[in-house]
Every structure is written in structure tokens, then in C-alpha cells.
Amino acid sequence: MWRNRTSYPREPAESHEPAGSRAIAGQYRGTFSTAILVIRRRWGLMSERATFGAELRRRRVAAGHTLAWLAERTHYSKGYLSKVETGLATPNPALATLCETELGIPGTLVAFLPHGPKRRRTRPDIRPSGLPSATADFTGRSAEMQRVRRALQADSGVCVVSGMGGVGKTALAVRCAHRLEAGFADGCLFVDLRGYDPEEHTAGPAAVHDRLLRVLGVPAELIPADPDDRAALYRSRLRGRSVLLVLDNAVSAAQVRPLLPAEPKCRVLITSRSRLTTIDDACHVSLDVLPAPAAVELFTALTGLPPGDGVARVAERCGRLPLAIRIAAARLRAHPAWHLGELERRLGAEATRLGELDDGERTLSAAFLLSVRQLTATESRLFGLLALHPGDDFDVHIASAVGGLSLREADRTLERLHDTYLLAQPDVARYQFHDLLRTFAREEVLTGTAERDRATAFRRLAGFAVRSTASADRLLTPQRFQPSIEFEPDVPEQVRLDDDEMALAWFQTEWPNLVALCRAANDRGEHDRCWQLAYFLRGFFFTSKLWDAWIATNRWARESAAALDNRWALATVTANLGVAMVDQGNLDEAADCYREALGLYRDLGDGHGESTMLAHRAWVAHYRGHHAEALHDLRLARVCYERTGNRRNAAITNRGIALVMTALGQPGEAAVLATEILPLFDELGLPLDAAMTQNCLGWAWFRAGREDLATTAYQDAATRAEACGSAYETARAYTGLGNLAAARGERDAAAELWARADETHPVLDPIIVGETRERFARRQANGAATIAAEDFPR
């Protein structure tokens, strides 16, 4: 390191020190001289900058022009010109020439340009470069930078970098341009097209041609007034040149297309908040939010804090959006008394998060607003109304319902919102908000819609959800009673579902959104839609065993039914809550629910409801070991169902009787009963009930010692359960087959089948599932001293 620095000539000096000491001293003196030389050079450059800036300001003020006027005329930003005038930014020959032309003082400013170290040039003429400085803290974009580099090396030589506001498009483009600039013999041209600047007019092609021509050395008086002639001259001036053209903040392809050079040695890098997909020959690089590690790295680089959980949470609350992270870091730096926890607390509340992401000069809301201003009234309205949807994602049907639009109109509007990065598209036909954009839509856009229109839109959305859920439930659980529901005339028709497979697939996609909508309906006072959604979700939740969602929706439904004083709805959702509790093994709370529902049904004189509660209450007794009591209630319920001709409920009750008889030591009679009811479930089109019946039959034959018949029943149960999408019943069948293997002494086969059951559905409560009790009893008998708590997953 020292050897490189001593290459500068040193002055001879006499010394009486020993030769070795003189050598060491000379080495240090040489280093000191070098440092002084570097400081002088840097200070000289700073002085030259200040001299140029002072002369520019003197000339501008003398001519009676403002800084804003000069910025408009030269197409440089007002902030950059201010830094040049104060000596904080280095001017370039192109800027000097432009300022001389606009101020009418040719040849006077160029003489004041700083004379820094010269770079070797491949051409004798001027190599313009108006690139802004590259961002110092830049992380997480190596893959995108490689894609940009490859795109600019391709034949077309045009690359569009697009993304939502604040994602760092300009920073990426400028960094790429700085790295690539040396490869262009005629330099780099940077133009801010102001496509999203609220205080400036969008730069049209003619104005940009005017600026670029002057930078390319064309005198102002020789620039044609006619736009077509100006464009032709622009293309002509680039002929034979090697130039990198950076077009920042393009608003549309129409704005950019006339600026594309015809010269194949030129390359163009474009940034935009729109995808600009109609620029066919371009390579399109879509910029997403930062990966989590890169977001943490950016925040730590800006604040000096070490990475950790708190930093990670702040980065996530900033949506991993670079602009939001920079604003949050700036706020932390501006408040020395704050600690990271205070910033995290301030960003914790979604309702106030956007307000916190404001550092006095930059606001996230302002950045988003620039994008929304490019929308039509219809697009802006739908963007705001979509914030009423409480789920994580949505499709065109939801957009149609909330916006009151036809499917075609909704589809085109969603495409437009996606093209402008106001919506993301995580999957085919699915859309979603970025978290911060959802908050912005709710707080800044939706508030511009009248409250009456918002209420109507939500009712339309909730009505559509109930109608579609009822349709799917009818296919998934035919023969189940459905109450009569009224819908407003403007509620769209339900989603088209042709069979139970489509219904199951629809439920699997939409259930998180339907749960969120059920809660929102309760919160907004749309109580009828709340309990109706919970009611029609019950069949799917029973199949999928999504207990948390099942319980939550029915708790909200109870509140809504009580608010409406709808006693039948209150009794029904309370009973459904009890079923979920039994399924989860919470027998005490289930018993309370059944007791309350039974009283309500009796007060209403609803004999069907009363019989159903007797059957449900019997299950609690059975799981508590009170099998005779359970058998009594089940037989009473069966009499009622058979009297009213309810074949489905009668068959389900008979399956319960078969399980209770097995527990009472009558597995043979239980197997006969289960065998009799199986064809009825097939006839009624109830595949899940058929799978459950085969598991019941397998359990009865197992307890009767008929391993061959039990194996056949369990195998058929597994096939049926897999076909109808019930992981729970599939796992139960595999557990039963594992028990059979263990009974034959085939320990490896048993372990494999039990592992398959655990992989399919790890939660089979031994209180509820006899096969699980048998499995762990077998394991204990085969040498396990104790049964670990994890052997009984809850």
C-alpha cells in the first residue's frame, strides 16, 4: 500500500539521522506529501465547482430569471441546478452549453468548468453524460441488474424496467447506466420524462427532442419547429453514434416510442410505473419489492443498526418497499431519542402507517397518488372499492360484485390496475394489493366515495359471497337443508360451479376470503350475511376440518343472529359451533352449545331441530363413555327422521348407532347396520358420508376380529375419502390399516401406514377416533414404556 503512494516525486532533504531512520522518515514524509496533494486537488475541484456555480447564479439573476425557469428551459431538475450553483454538484459541458444558450451568453460558462482528471476518450468530440449520482445504499437487485445488462446487449437494445411507485426503478436504472456508460463511445443521455410529476407537465416527445438535440451539439436556432422534422434530425444526429439513452419516468409507450433511436449501436433503458407491454421489441424487467434479507440489509445500512427480529419486523411493515424503508430509516435518524421499538410501534397500526411514512420531504402516500392520478374515473373508483374486500386476494367475480360492473368491464379494469402496478397478480385470474397500497386505497381513495355508495358496494359483495357459497355448499353436501335467502336485485349471480369437484376447489381457494368477509359483515352490521356465510361454510369446514375458521365464523354468526333476534339462526349456528367443538375434542363446550340450541328449538317448536340436538348430544355422551345414554338419544332421533322421511339424517344417525354398538361390544351387529346404509349414501350422492361409513365398517370388523373384511373396508374408505377431498377420513383409514398390520406382527408395514396417516392429516384425536386409540395401545404393547404427549396431537 505504501509503495503505491510513494510514486510521486519527493523533495530531497538533508538529515543527520542514521540511514535506516532517514529511509523510514522519508517514507512517511512521502505519504504525507501525497495526502496533501490529494487534499489540494480535491479542494481545488470544489473551488472550481463553487466558481462555476457562482458565475451561473450571477448570470441568471442578472438576466432576471428564477431557478425554476432555468430548470424548465434546460430540462435539468431544480434541485440539481441548486446544488450546482452552491458547488455541491459537479457541472458538465452539456449543462454549461445549455445554460449559455438559454441565458444568451455563449462561451462564458464553459471557461469556469472544473478541470478534474481527464478520462481517455475513444472519440475527440463531446461525450455527454447527465446521469444523476448512483444511490450509495443499494441492495438486493443483482439478478435484475444482470437482466438489464443482457437486455441492453441484445439485438433490440431496449429494456423497460417497471414497477410500483417507490420500488426503486430509477435507482436500479441509474446504477446500471453508471456501470455500462464506459462501453458507449459517445456517452450517456439521461432524461426525466416527468410522467408522474404533479408539479410539471409530462415531457412530450417534441420537448425531449429539443433538449437532446442541444445536448448533442445542435444550436438552438437550427432545431426545427415541426415535431416530425425535429424527430428526423434527432435520429440523424444519433446515426453512427454509440449512446446509452436513459428515459426515466415514462408514462406510456406513446411517450417513449418517438424517442427510440434507429441507430443499432445505441441502447435505451426506460423506467415506468406502467408495464409498457406494447413496446414489443423491448425486454421487460418487472421490479418487485425487496427480498426479506435485502430489505433488512438496506435498513441496517441506512441506520447502522445490526440486523435482528426488530429490524425484520420494521422492514415487513414497510412492505419491503425501498422508498418506505428509506423514509422509516430517515425518521429514526431524525429522532435520536427514539429506539427501534418506538419506530416499530408507530408502524404497527395499519390505520396510521402511511402517515408515519413521511419524513418531511418524501411521503409514501404522495408516491402512490402519482400512480392513481393516471387512472380513469372508473379505474380509480374500482381501485378504492376493492379495499372493501377484506380478504387477501380476489378474482374478477369479486371485482364485478364490489364495483357493480359486468364481468368484461371488471376484467379490463383489473388488467389496467395490474398494468400500472396498483394490483399484483400472484396467480392466474387472482389479484391482490400490496399491503401499503391497500391501506392507501382505503384511506386516500375510498374516502372519496360517498358512504352510501360504499355501503351498497359492501352489501353487494357480501350478497354475492353468500349466494356463491350456498351454491357450492349445495353441490358439496346435497340433501342438507338450506334456508330460503333473499338477495337484492343488484347482487350478481353466483360463480358457475358444475359439480362437487368444482365446488370443493372453489372452497379451497376462497375460504380464507369468505372467513374474512364473515367477520367484516359482523363488524359492519350486515348481520344477516354474517350468519348466512357461516351456515353455508359449515359443510366445507366439516370436510376439511379447518376447526379454527369453523369456530371463529360461528362465534361471529352467533353475535349477528342475536343482534337480529333471529332465534332459528341463533339455534342453528350454535348447534354448528357445537359440532366443531366435538370434532376438536372440546366436549364440555360442545355440550353447552347443544343444551342452548336444544332449548331454542323447543321454544320455537322446531321438532327437526330438537331431534338433531338429541343426535348431537348423543355424540358427546358416546365420547365421554356413556354409550347406553348415547344409544338411547340416537334411536329417538332416528324415529323422528324416519317419520318425516329425512333419509339422509336417518342414515347418518344409523352410522352413529353402529359406532356406539361397536363400543358396547356388539361389532357384528354394528357391521351389518353400516353395510345396510352404505348404498343409501351412494344413492343420495354423499361421498363423504360413504367414506365415513366405510371407516365405521372397518372399525366394526376390526373389533369383531374379521381382519380380511376390515382391510377391504378401510381400503375402500381411503379411496373414497381421497376422491372427495377429506384428508381426515383418509388418515383415519390409513391408521386402521396400520393397526391391522400391527395385529399381524408386521411392524415395519404398520409404521409406514401410520406415517402415511400422519402425513395426510396429523390431528386425529384419540377421544374421537377409535383407530387412534388402538394405534397407541398397540405401540405401548410393543415396547413403548409411555406414550408421549406428541403421540396425541390436538
Automatic annotation (TrEMBL):
Keywords: TPR repeat. It comes from the Bacteria. Residues 1-21, 116-137 are annotated as: Disordered. Pfam families: HTH_31, NB-ARC, TPR_12. Residues 56-109 form the HTH cro/C1-type domain. TPR repeats lie at residues 571-604. PANTHER family: HTH-TYPE TRANSCRIPTIONAL REGULATOR RV0890C-RELATED (PTHR47691:SF3), REGULATOR-RELATED (PTHR47691). This is HTH cro/C1-type domain-containing protein.
